[in-house]
Amino acid sequence: MKNVFILLFSIFFANILCAQEQKAIRITKENKQREVVLKENKRIFIKTVDGKELSGRYSVENSSIVIDDEKIALADIKYLKRNPAFTSILTTVLFVYGGSVATIMGVALGILVDPNIFYLTIPGVGLIYAGLQKPNFHRKFKAEKNWMFEIVTIPE
What we know:
single chain, 3-stranded antiparallel sheet, 3 helices, 35% strand, Positive regulator of sigma(E), RseC/MucC, signal
């Protein structure tokens, strides 16, 4: 009985020591009362007021955001977007694959069938270029459109 009590007490004590509150960015729109919460260590894309673009997993330190060892104050954010790895990889692969198929078909059919089909290579090259530019179709949360950024702690 004594061993069970000590085991339960040590598990409870270890749980209290390891339990942490997770920080997040709360994005709210003033006039519509909309709210979006992005937990820490999610992938985001930020453009700052001075034109710097940063992408990657973020962490919170002293009411500022840290991405790739660069601190960004919340007041310096021009806009913020989610940037999940899965959708980034999927859109890149689909655009590059679709563009290469269109380009190869345009060249092959242009040589074998009709020279006017060479024009199919133009959208194919455009798709390849768009795929290599890291497309991101997620919503932008712009500070100039009354989106407010604040750091909150959420219990885990």
